[in-house]
Amino acid sequence: MCRNLTLLAKNDRRQMIFTCEHGSIHITHQFTTILMSRHVFIQIAALFGQDEMDTPYARMLGFRMEEAVKGQVDLWIGSGGFRLDEGDFRSLAALIQQSVCRLREAPHARLEQEPPSLFSPN
Question: What is the mean pLDDT of residues 82-88?
Fold first, then answer.
């Protein structure tokens, strides 16, 4: 259980991103929080800067967007999801980018190293 949360970014739409003592990332939208490793968070954050977010790589990460009711999308990360209107989506994307910057700048919140390759000689 996470007991020590450090706020990375928040906005006035009840969206917040935290890191915890375990190094995990907590993304909160209104009353729902999705938890993931920093490594996965950094990979998902990179998707927000791309024109096409529905790629095989995104699906491999457990990331997908589905059209919900008119003007809204369901954003899924693993088995958790958020229903977002356009403003919520843009706000969350901005928070994710702010959080990535904070993680890279903060000496106490070093990013995890890349996982070893299956083809690595080590």
Answer: 93
